[in-house]
Design brief:
Blueprint: H1 5-16, H2 20-26, H3 31-39, H4 45-55, E1 71-72, E2 75-76, H5 88-117
Antiparallel strand pairs: 1-2
Helix pairs in contact: 1-3
């Protein structure tokens, strides 16, 4: 296979906007080891699972055949991503828009909480 999983992890870490120090802390290793991970062409599955959880990204998709399903307990519960590479910028814009909307709604909630707590004037 021509997969260089370390480069893929590095790219996804950059996309996630997480610092290498924070990433190292979350996968319970040192920053130095993170740089070693970036150089790897292959990786232990337990570590890849942890990295997938931390970055919220399915790195195992690079090892699956297109259209293949992962079966657990006899149930087909995984479908490979149908997102085309050209869709990614559009999806990133949507994510940013949703983050802004979420921040705005949190602000409204905070103002409503303050209003409820404020003493009523007569």
């Amino acid at each position: 296979m021509g997969i260089h999983i370390g480069q893929i992890i590095r790219k996804q870490l950059d996309t996630a906007g997480m610092s290498k120090t924070e990433f190292a802390r979350r996968i319970n290793t040192t920053s130095q080891n993170v740089y070693g991970i970036f150089k790897r062409k292959s990786i232990d599955t337990a570590l890849l699972q942890k990295i997938s959880e931390v970055l919220r990204y399915d790195f195992f998709q690079y090892y699956s055949k297109p259209g293949a399903a992962i079966v657990e307990d006899g149930k087909k519960d995984y479908k490979p991503s149908q997102t085309a590479p050209g869709d990614i910028p559009e999806l990133l814009k949507e994510v940013e828009s949703l983050r802004k909307e979420n921040a705005y709604l949190k602000e409204i909630n905070q103002l409503l909480r303050e209003k409820v707590k404020a003493p009523k004037s007569k």
